[in-house]
Amino acid sequence: MITRRVPIVVALLCATITGCATATAVPERLATVAPHAAPDIPVADVQAHLAELSRIADENGGNRAHGQPGYRAGLDYLKGRLDAAGYTTALQEFTIGGATGYNLIADWPGGDENATVMFGGHADSVSAGPGINDNGSGSAGLLEVALTVAEQNLRPAKHLRFAWWGAEELGLVGSTEYVESLPDAELAKIAGYVNFDMIGSPNPGYFVYASGSQPPGSEAIEKVLADHFAAIGVQTEPVEVGGRSDHAAFARAGVPTGGVFTGAEETKSGEQAAKWGGTAGEAFDPCYHRACDTLDNIDTTALDRNSDAIANAVWTLTG
Ligand code: DPN
Ligand code: CA
Ligand code: ZN
């Protein structure tokens, strides 16, 4: 009998889909909600990942550098959290400087794989220190957004893939290895790559990678990132990152790219201090590539705003 079957089907769906009761109860209201409303990422959760990466560096000779035990320990922390959340993870191995390097690739099951959107950052530090801003910050922000995707059971139209690159500090080695190892047919499926390298600088700037010098299609990424900051009333500046981070190999291969950045060794100007606060005449990150790039070397507000920007980009760009 149809009148009995319908409720049984609904009950079965509700047993398997989180939030089914709410979703079935308020269909009209859902239709009026912005389609890609991204969650607010609690910065404390990002800081907790940073604390883990810091502890891992401390227990492994003070760094998370390529070829050192701290690199692999840090990557295993990320992988363990992603595996537990339901990601399909893989390590891609390569060799550089006489040591094995690893990229960590995490796929969120589902979505159109012919339109794969990638979000990544490098997981290695320099050997001088624990690399908490460079690039524990991007690594931790990406991890917390990935875990939030799982918690909320996001079902994007496009396929979503996260990446944590190895040996960036040796010359963008891991990301270049990844892009160059992809057959053309696989590369053609990557609709975009968004990079997060240094997102919690202690004297922060709010930079968005300039799309003008990037492949066609990059404008859309720049706009989504810039719009997030405009919406929270924070001014941004476009920055030419050139070949200084892991988007570069993707750009060379013609993939639309973008990213955000809070600044490294460059000096903050008076004009920039006027709009962003902080200290004019000092570096955005005075501990860039130094032993003092520790948990104290993070601006919590910048880390929070940029982690929310990652979430906004993931929710918006994967449709
Ligand atoms: N990728 C970092 C480095 O080469 O040490 C710093 C950086 C990040 C520079 C983002 C520019 C943009
Ligand atoms: Ca937040
Ligand atoms: Zn660096």
Report on the architecture of this protein.
With 319 residues, the protein is α/β, with parallel strands linked by helices. The protein has a single domain, classed as Zn peptidases (Aminopeptidase, 3-Layer(aba) Sandwich). It has twelve helices and eight strands. It has helices at residues 2-16, 20-25, 27-32, 43-58, 69-85, 132-151, 173-181, 184-187, 218-231, 247-252, 270-276, 300-317, and strands at residues 88-96, 99-108, 112-122, 158-165, 190-196, 207-209, 237-239, 257-261. The chain has an eight-stranded mixed sheet with strand order 1-2-4-3-5-8-6-7, with helices on both faces. α4 (43-58) packs antiparallel against α5 and α6 (132-151) crosses α12. The longest helix is centred in the middle third of the chain and has 20 residues, at 132-151. The chain is globular, with a radius of gyration of 20 Å. The two termini are 38 Å apart. Residues 1-33 have low confidence and may be disordered. Bound molecules: D-phenylalanine, calcium ion and zinc ion (ZN). The site of zinc ion has 3 residues, from loops.
